Amino acid sequence: MILLAGEDVSDPRIDADRARARIGVAFQHYNLSPHLTVLDNVTLAARLVHRMPRADPERRAFELLDSIGLAGHARACPDRLSGGRQQRVAIVRAIAASPELLLLDEVTSALDPELVGEVLELVSSPAESGTNIVMAAHEMAFARDVADRVVFLDGGRIIEEAPAAEFLSAPREERTREFLARFLPRG
């Protein structure tokens, strides 16, 4: 059972399209439509799924793209952008329609270290507004600052789950301690 705001979205009897419309997704490998411009990639869900008039999602898209320095690339096709820029466009696309749930898969993996902070700030904004976020990441500093709970997976199994502060400061499992030692130097 998967509950989203109290509704079982895994129930085969529900309207799957309506459930999907409540979820934003940013994949590790972007999954941008190469035949659409950046602007069209970002606004597509708002226009087609949410049936918003073009002006509203475009205004939001430009605000979000501007916040990460990509407004000047709005009319470009994604294949004209670097991997890091494509990843940032994918994140903007995921959050543009203000989803209730945001699923993020290693969204910082293609970014150079200078851009990681910018992207994590972009992702923090929906979290602060009440959007639930499930994020696969190795960014433990981000987890410390933003996450409510951390689930550590290894080999497809849950090794440990705890509130973020507890997970990071007092992990129970040896495997968790080994992992954190690589990402959060103790000092």
TrEMBL record:
Residues 4-180 form the ABC transporter domain. Gene3D superfamilies: P-loop containing nucleotide triphosphate hydrolases (3.40.50.300). Belongs to the ABC transporter superfamily. PROSITE patterns: ABC_TRANSPORTER_2. It holds the Pfam family ABC_tran. Keywords: Transport. This is ABC transporter domain-containing protein. InterPro entries: ABC_transporter-like_ATP-bd (IPR003439), MetN_ABC_transporter-like (IPR050086), P-loop_NTPase (IPR027417). GO terms for molecular function: ATP binding; ATP hydrolysis activity.
